[in-house]
C-alpha cells in the first residue's frame, strides 16, 4: 500500500515536471499568453465544469467499485476550443489554471496532476492544430485535418496519462485500465469540430483578444445546448440501467426472504464474487457481468418450497431432489432474457464440486467453468459466515480455514487463494450479515431462536 | 448563376437527402428526420445574407425529398405536407430577418441568427401541431406529449442551424458536413437510451414470468393487467410517460408474492403483505419508486385513491374475475366499479373495442 502511494507521487511529480517543461517550450516559441485571454477561457471552463458528464460508468453499486472513468466533459471541450482559438502557450496555461476551479480541488497531488495533464494534452492539441495549418495553409481541408489530429492527440494523451495514474493507484495492469478508458469516438470528434467552430469565431475577434462579441456568445450557447441534450439522454440511460439493476437486486432479495436464514445472501455473494474476480484481475466490464451472475445465482429458488430452504435437519430424498433443481430452474429463466443469457453457465454450475460430487450434472475439475468455481467459493464463504438454525456464524478466519480444508477436493484452490488474498487486504462484507432490518425481523418473529 | 452557387445548391440537395436518411428516433418512438436542422440553415444561406443557395433549390429539393420519403418509407402524406409548410414558413422568416432592419447597430449575421432561431422554433411548432392532430389521444395532451418528446431534438437542431450560419463564412460548404455531426451524436445517444429501456422492460417481464412460472400468480396475469393498464391509460389520455410507468407497475404488481415460503400461502396471506412486498421492489427501482404507494392504495381502501391506483385496481380485478361465471362477474363488477365512473367507462370502451 505504502509503496503504491510512493509510486503514485513519483508519477504525478513526473507528469508535472514534464508539463512544466512543455509549457516553457511553448512560451519560448509563442511568447507569454495574454492573462485576459486565459481568464476568459478559465471562466468558460468554470461554467463548463457545471455541465460535467461525469458518469458512473457501470452499474455495480454494492461492490464498492470506484467505477468512474473520465468522459466527455464540457471542460474538455473548452480546452479544445482554447487550443484551436489561441496558441499552445495559452492553452497550456489554461490547463494549469483550470485545476484551480473552486470545486475542482482534490488535494495538492490530484489537483496538480489534473492541471499538469490538462496543460499537456491541451498544449499538444493546439500545437498539432497550429502545425498542420502552418504546413498546409489554413483553407478548409487542412483546418479539418488539424482539428481531427488535435482532438485525437488530446483524447489519447489524456487517456494514457490518466490510465497510468489509475493503474498505479489501483494496482492493476496499465493495459487493462487503458482498454476501459475512453478512446477517440465519433462523439469526441464531433465535439472537436464544434470546438473548432467556436475557435474560428473567436479568432475572428482578432484585434481585441479577450473581448467577446454577441456572435461568440451565440456560438457558445449553440455548442453547449446540444452537449446538454446529450448529457440528459446519457443520464436517462444510466438511470434506466440503475433501475434495471435495482429491480433485479430487489427481486433477488425478495426471493432470499423465502427463507429467513438466507436473506441478504445473494447481495453478499455478489459482493464477494466481484472481490474475487478483482483479485484475479478482471476488467470492469467483466466484473459487472460476474456481479449480476452472482446476484442471480439462487434465483431458481423461487421454484423451491420455503420449508425445504429453511429446514434445519437433514433433507429427505424427495426434498433433496427438489433442492437440486434450483440451479437448472434459474438457468432456464436467464436463458429467456437476451442480455442475461451469458450468465447461464455460472448459475447452472455453481453447486458443482471439483471431485464430481456436486449437482446438477456432476461435472469435475476443469469441466466446471471458472466463473462457477469462483461463485461456489463466494457462496460457501457467505453461507459459513452467516447464522443457521443449527449453528452460529463462523468468523472470517474460521470460515477461511474451513474452506481451505475443502480446497482441491471440492473447491478450486485458485479461487480459495483469491479469497485469502481478499480477506488479507481487509475486506469486509458490505452489508451487515447477521442483522435483519426491523421490518424484516417483525415479519418473521419465529426465525430468531438459538 | 455562378459556379459556387451551383455547387452549394447540389450540396443542399444531397444534404437534404442524407438528412431524410438519418432519422432520429425520439424516446416516444416517433421518428423525426433532421430536415428540421437543415431547413432553417439552408434557408438562411439562401434567402438571408450569404445568397449562395438559391431559394428555388431549397424548396424544390424539399418537395422532391419529402415526396421520396413518403413513397419509399411509406410515411403519411401529412408528414410531407407539414414539413414543406414548415420549411416555407422558416424560409420566409429567415428571408425577412435578412431584409428588415431591427434596431440600430445590429449586424447582419446577428439578425440572421435571430431569424434562424425563430424559424427553427416555428418549424418545430408546426411539426408538433401537425402531427398531434392525428392521434387517438386528445388534442392538448397529445400536443404537450409531442412537444416534450421533440424538445431535445428541437434544441439540438436550432443550435446546429445557428452554428452553420455562424461558421459559413469560414468553412463555406464544409459547414454542411459539420451540420450532421451533432445530430448523429444525438441519434446515437437516443438509440442507446432506447436500448436501455428495452432491456429494462425485458428484465421486468422476466421477473413477472418467473413469479408466474413458480406458480405464485396465474400464468399471463401480469402481462394482461399491464396491457389493460396501458389501454385504459390511453383511453383516459394520460401522458405517455405515465402510461409507460403504469405498464411496468402492472407487470410487477404481484411479483412480491415470491417472498412467501410456499405457493399455497398466497391464498391465505393478507393481499396487503404481497402489495408491500411488491412495493419494496418498486422502491428499489428508482423511477418507479413513487408507485409503491399506488400499489398499496390499490389493495387498500376505496376512498381517495389516485387515478393510477384506480386503473391498476380495476385492471387487476377484471383479470382475476374474468374466469368467473358471467352473472357473478356482473354483480362483482357493480360493487367494484361503484363510485369510479371515469375509469370504469374507459375500461368498458376498451373492452367493447376488443370484442
Would you write up a description of this structure?
The complex is a heterodimer of chains A (about 450) and B (about 350). With about 450 residues, chain A is mainly α. In chain A, about 65% of the residues lie in helices and about 0% in strands. Chain A is built from 19 helices and no strands. Residues about 55-70, about 205-210 and about 430-450 of chain A have low confidence and may be disordered. Chain B has about 350 residues and is mainly alpha-helical. Chain B has helices spanning about 5-20, 35-45, 55-70, 75-100, 110-130, 140-170, 175-215, 220-235, 240-250, 265-270, 270-285, 290-300, 305-320, 325-335, 340-355; strands at about 25, 30. In chain B, strands 1-2 form a two-stranded antiparallel sheet. In chain B, helix 2 (about 35-45) runs parallel beside helix 4 (about 75-100). At the A-B interface, helix 6, helix 8, helix 9 and helix 12 of A face helix 5, helix 6, helix 7 and helix 11 of B.
Number of helices of chain B: 15
Provide the β-strand percentage band of chain B.
Answer: under 5%
| Beta-strand content estimate of chain A | under 5%
User: How would you describe the oligomerization state of the chains in this entry?
Assistant: heterodimer
Low-confidence stretches of chain A: 53-71, 206-211, 432-450
The major β-sheet of chain B equals: 2 strands, antiparallel
Q: Radius of gyration of chain A from the CA trace?
A: 28 Å
Based on DSSP secondary structure assignment, what is the total number of beta strands of chain B? 2
The ordered string of helix (H) and strand (E) elements of chain B is HEEHHHHHHHHHHHHHH
What would the principal axes of the Cα set say about the shape of chain B?
A: elongated
Please tell me how large the radius of gyration of chain B is: 27 Å
**What strand line-up does the widest sheet of chain B have?**
1-2
In N-to-C order, the SSE pattern of chain A is HHHHHHHHHHHHHHHHHHH
pLDDT < 50 stretches of chain B? none
> Which percent bin holds the helix content of chain B?
over 70%
Amino acid at each position: 500500500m505504502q509503496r503504491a502511494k510512493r509510486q503514485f507521487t513519483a508519477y504525478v511529480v513526473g507528469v508535472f515536471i514534464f508539463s512544466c517543461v512543455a509549457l516553457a517550450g511553448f512560451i519560448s516559441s509563442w511568447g507569454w499568453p495574454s492573462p485576459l485571454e486565459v481568464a476568459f477561457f478559465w471562466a468558460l471552463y468554470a461554467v463548463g465544469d457545471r455541465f460535467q458528464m461525469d458518469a458512473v460508468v457501470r452499474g455495480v453499486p454494492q461492490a464498492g467499485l470506484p467505477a468512474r472513468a473520465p468522459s466527455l466533459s464540457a471542460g474538455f471541450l473548452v480546452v479544445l476550443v482554447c487550443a484551436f482559438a489561441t496558441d499552445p502557450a495559452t492553452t497550456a496555461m489554461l490547463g494549469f489554471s483550470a485545476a484551480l476551479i473552486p470545486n475542482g480541488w482534490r488535494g495538492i497531488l490530484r489537483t496538480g496532476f489534473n492541471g499538469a495533464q490538462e496543460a499537456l494534452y491541451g498544449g499538444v492539441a493546439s500545437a498539432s492544430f497550429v502545425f498542420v495549418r502552418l504546413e498546409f495553409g489554413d483553407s478548409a481541408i487542412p483546418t479539418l485535418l488539424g482539428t481531427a489530429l488535435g482532438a485525437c492527440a488530446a483524447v489519447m494523451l489524456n487517456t494514457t496519462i490518466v490510465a497510468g495514474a489509475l493503474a498505479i493507484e489501483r494496482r492493476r495492469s496499465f493495459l487493462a485500465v487503458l482498454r476501459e478508458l475512453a478512446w477517440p469516438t465519433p462523439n469526441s470528434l464531433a465535439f472537436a469540430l464544434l470546438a473548432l467552430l467556436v475557435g474560428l469565431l473567436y479568432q475572428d475577434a482578432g484585434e481585441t483578444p479577450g473581448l467577446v462579441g454577441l456572435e461568440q456568445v451565440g456560438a457558445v450557447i449553440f455548442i453547449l445546448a446540444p452537449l446538454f441534450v446529450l448529457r440528459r439522454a446519457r443520464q436517462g440511460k444510466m438511470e434506466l440501467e440503475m433501475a434495471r439493476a435495482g429491480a433485479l437486486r430487489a427481486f433477488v432479495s425478495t426471493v432470499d426472504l423465502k427463507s429467513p436464514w438466507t436473506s441478504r445472501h445473494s447481495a453478499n455473494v455478489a459482493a464477494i464474487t466481484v472481490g474475487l474476480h478483482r483479485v484475479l484481475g478482471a476488467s470492469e466490464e467483466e466484473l459487472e457481468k460476474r456481479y449480476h451472475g452472482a446476484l442471480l445465482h439462487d434465483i431458481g429458488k423461487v421454484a423451491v418450497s420455503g420449508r425445504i430452504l429453511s429446514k434445519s435437519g437433514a433433507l429427505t430424498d424427495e426434498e433433496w431432489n427438489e433442492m437440486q433443481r434450483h440451479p437448472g430452474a434459474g438457468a432456464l429463466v436467464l436463458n429467456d432474457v437476451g442480455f442475461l443469457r451469458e450468465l447461464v453457465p455460472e448459475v447452472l454450475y455453481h453447486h458443482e464440486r471439483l471431485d464430481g460430487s456436486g449437482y446438477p450434472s456432476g461435472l469435475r475439475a476443469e469441466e466446471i467453468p471458472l466463473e462457477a468455481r469462483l461463485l461456489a467459493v463466494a457462496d460457501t464463504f457467505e453461507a459459513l459466515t452467516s447464522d443457521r438454525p443449527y449453528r452460529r456464524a463462523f468468523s472470517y478466519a474460521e470460515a477461511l480455514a474451513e474452506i481451505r480444508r475443502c480446497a482441491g477436493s471440492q473447491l478450486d484452490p485458485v479461487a480459495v487463494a483469491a479469497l485469502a488474498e481478499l480477506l488479507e487486504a481487509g475486506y469486509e462484507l458490505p452489508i451487515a450479515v447477521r442483522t435483519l432490518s426491523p421490518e424484516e425481523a417483525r415479519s418473521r418473529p419465529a426465525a430468531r431462536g438459538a | 448563376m455562378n459556379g459556387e452557387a451551383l455547387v452549394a445548391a447540389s450540396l443542399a440537395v444531397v444534404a437534404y437527402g442524407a438528412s431524410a436518411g438519418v432519422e432520429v428516433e425520439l424516446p416516444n418512438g416517433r421518428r423525426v428526420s433532421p430536415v428540421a436542422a437543415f431547413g432553417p440553415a439552408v434557408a438562411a444561406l439562401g434567402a438571408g445574407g450569404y445568397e449562395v443557395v438559391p431559394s428555388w433549390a431549397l424548396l424544390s429539393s424539399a418537395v422532391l425529398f419529402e415526396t421520396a420519403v413518403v413513397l419509399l418509407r411509406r410515411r403519411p402524406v401529412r408528414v410531407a405536407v407539414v414539413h414543406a409548410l414548415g420549411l416555407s414558413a422558416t424560409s420566409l422568416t429567415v428571408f425577412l430577418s435578412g431584409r428588415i432592419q431591427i434596431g440600430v447597430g445590429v449586424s447582419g449575421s446577428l439578425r440572421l441568427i435571430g431569424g434562424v432561431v425563430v424559424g427553427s422554433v416555428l418549424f418545430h411548432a408546426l411539426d408538433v401541431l401537425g402531427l398531434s392532430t392525428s392521434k387517438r389521444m386528445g388534442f392538448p395532451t397529445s400536443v404537450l406529449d409531442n412537444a416534450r418528446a421533440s424538445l431535445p431534438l428541437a434544441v439540438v437542431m436550432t443550435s446546429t442551424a445557428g452554428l452553420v450560419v455562424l461558421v459559413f463564412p469560414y468553412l463555406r460548404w464544409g459547414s454542411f458536413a459539420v451540420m450532421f455531426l451533432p445530430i448523429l451524436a444525438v441519434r446515437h445517444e437516443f438509440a442507446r437510451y432506447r436500448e436501455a429501456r428495452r432491456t429494462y422492460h425485458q428484465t421486468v417481464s422476466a421477473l413477472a414470468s418467473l413469479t408466474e412460472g413458480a406458480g405464485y400468480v396465474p400464468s399471463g396475469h401480469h402481462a394482461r393487467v399491464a396491457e389493460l393498464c396501458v389501454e385504459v391509460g390511453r383511453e383516459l389520455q394520460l401522458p405517455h410517460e405515465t402510461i409507460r410507468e403504469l405498464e411496468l407497475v402492472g407487470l410487477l404488481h404481484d411479483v412480491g408474492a415470491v417472498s412467501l415460503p410456499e405457493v399455497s400461502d398466497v391464498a391465505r396471506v393478507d393481499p396487503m403483505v404481497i402489495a408491500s412486498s411488491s412495493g419494496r421492489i418498486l422502491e428499489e427501482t428508482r423511477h418507479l419508486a413513487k408507485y409503491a404507494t399506488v400499489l398499496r392504495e390499490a389493495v387498500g381502501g376505496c376512498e381517495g385513491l389516485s387515478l393510477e391506483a384506480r386503473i391498476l385496481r380495476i385492471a387487476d380485478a377484471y383479470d382475476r374475475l374474468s374466469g368467473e361465471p358471467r352473472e357473478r362477474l356482473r354483480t362483482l363488477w357493480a360493487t367494484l366499479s361503484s363510485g369510479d365512473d371515469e375509469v370504469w367507462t374507459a375500461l368498458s370502451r376498451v373492452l367493447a373495442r376488443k370484442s
